[in-house]
Design a protein that fits this description.
Rossmann fold; alpha/beta; 6 helices; six-stranded mixed β-sheet; single chain; 220 residues
Amino acid sequence: MERQREAPGTIGDRSKRRWKEASIRCMLKRLECSQESVELAEHLAKQSSQKITAVYSSDLRRASDTAQTIAEKLGLSQVSTTPLLRERHLGRLQGLTPKQAREREAHAFKILASSSGDEPIPGGGESFGEMRDRAARAAQDIARQHEGERVVVVTHGGVLQSMHVTATGKPAPGRVPNASINVLSISSDNQWKFQSWCDVEHLKGVGFLSSAFGGGAKSG
């Protein structure tokens, strides 16, 4: 896994200062095809200086398929899936392109585009805050179960953006590329810190970056 090297006195020593490396180490956006899944899995296996002990995923197939490829490459027997890591439910906007959403569901689209995050999208959709809270619960649960370990979590762009808000109090800078690696540590006293954000070095030369924001009308 491509990650920052730890200098003495920094993240590697935080177990002495209540950090304990209890962490979700890799937040990975979904991949569009199996070849990129293999490339990413091989990269994680080669570059990780600490053994990866588990793989978690959104239960949506576009994420869980990628997670399964990664788990197999890492020699792990199973993937733990959870709906808490799903992409935001968009209510009446679900399945629409942005153009269709603006034209057919202007009010719902305005809510989606709002930065307030407090109003649910009509038609059974979530507010940004609701997604942020459930994603935070998932992250905290995983960190508690794997204190001192490194795990891989395969999830979606909106979920990652919400975790960035939880960790920093600020919106994420720009969109999250498919297959990017985002390294997050959660301490034993629930302090969040991203060690890296949207790392795509492992994709250079693979011929994937030009379509790294794909996914179609129904994906996020």
